[in-house]
Amino acid sequence: MKATPEGIYFENSDLMLKWDDKIESFTSENNLVVEKSQIGFYSYLGEDTLIKDSEINLRTFFINSTSTFKELEYSISSRSKAKREFEILKEYFTKSFGLPIQDNQNEIVWSDKFLKIKLDLEDFHGLNLNLLITKNNVC
Question: Highest taxon of the source (predicted)?
């Protein structure tokens, strides 16, 4: 994954998600899987998009055809998978973006010129892993 001023490029799948592009159009052009939720839709990038041979499937939320790309997310609520994927993601982002700007053991934040990445492992009614990737608005 590489961050640019225009968006995020995923080398594994040759996908370029541009900030503020319409999600529905991007989803359609790239034949991505869409899941309906109670208040909108999730577009899934695919399991090999971020880390090859992993089950980590990033998604972005949209409500309608005018919704634009603002963030990517991933979450899992399985104790064994959450711990394993937390370590996989922590290692991946540290290799890709260097040491985190914040590391409180179970809440880690990386930030570079273009992206802010928050990885959180919370023990609340089971173990939950949450990943949020957003545009860094300080650039």
Answer: Bacteria
